[in-house]
Amino acid sequence: MSVLFGRKTAGTRLDTINYARGLVVSLYIVSWSFSFIAAMLVQTNDFNIVSCTMSVYTCIILYACSKILIYLFLMEKVYVVTAVGTTRFNFTLYRINLILLAPYLGIICLMLVYRVSNLQGNGECKIGLLPPASVTLILYDVFISSWLTILFIRPLMSPTSQLQGPSKGKLRDVARRTLMGSLIALVLSTANVFTLVLFRGQERGLICLASCTVDVTLNAITVHWVTNRGSGRSSSAERRSGERRTQPTSHLTTFEKRVAPLESHISVTVESYVEQFHQQTSVGCTSSQ
Q1: Going from the N-terminus, what domains does the chain have, and what CATH number goes with each?
Q2: Rounded to an integer, what distance in angstroms lies between the CA atom of residue 111 and that of residue 58?
Q3: N or C: which end of the chain has fewer CB within 10 A?
């Protein structure tokens, strides 16, 4: 997590961090904090009710924070690949997604109420969630992750979506990568919580903390991959850019020329390109009005 945080923030000034990148950096910080605290608690939670109780609170609060950040990140990417010339809160689908995220606050309350933290006769710490919380959590995770996945599949498959056209290659790459990230998040969360259900809401502290650490770390690695350009695609994009320079562009519309990826875009991250795309689109819509 320290390596990912360093790679993402190297050479970055605080005033240049936009909303999407702020979510990613926050996810790194939360995931690092979870790993660091879990590594300390797992050494002391046997024969120690205070450490055992802190373990379950760590699993609930920090794990829930990481999931909220991931969902906000996926919602931001849905806005990026489906909205053109519209602010977030004027975009109906974005507001719907925020409303769908609201029940997670109630699920956090359920997790706090139905938490389990006790010491066995041999001093072993058992932590977890009772069925009212664990079953609700797994159903919600499956629902929201499936919903967000569908929102990425729809524009990729539709021939009339905003992702189609010769100048939208990078936006399609954003959608494909985020679709994979959404699927991985769905699989990891479902496997983690389903394991808790199989253990009937009680796992040894070591197992629960380790599985949650793996979950949040792999999710952070996935988000890191989603927000970084692939070398293979960059090379092909550079070749296409070179081909465009040697071919006439009269067949492109004025709008496509305006939003077509410039050669300089190859050296920047996907978030920077998308932010510039929306700025250009907003200006185009304003001038046309």
Answers
A1: 2-231 (1.20.1070)
A2: 12
A3: C
